[in-house]
Design brief:
By secondary structure, the chain is mainly α. Helices cover about 65% and strands about 0% of the residues. The protein has 3 helices and no strands. It is elongated and about 85 Å long.
Length: about 80
């Protein structure tokens, strides 16, 4: 929230205590944790994890494609008497 005052005029701003606590939590806890996680995630993905990274970048597409495959496998298994 921006407070604008005329030149030479005193500005009084009283914040809600819950908002002050939220701001402190964000500064003390979230900021350092977010920085550490961002540091871990910045950089190249190891070769062994690239398939998982691809799935993480395209989750809806993967979900939409694998559902018919699973349903087909279940129905095929039932037709063959496996379930």
């Amino acid at each position: 929230m921006a407070v604008v005052a005329a030149e030479g005029e005193a500005v009084s701003f009283t914040a809600d205590p819950s908002l002050a606590g939220l701001a402190e939590f964000d500064t003390v806890v979230v900021g350092p944790v977010h920085g550490a996680v961002a540091g871990l995630l910045a950089g190249a993905v190891p070769v062994a994890l690239r398939p998982l990274a691809l799935l993480g970048r395209w989750p809806l597409s993967f979900y939409m494609l694998h559902q018919p495959v699973f349903i087909g496998a279940i129905l095929g298994g039932r037709l063959l008497g496996w379930w």
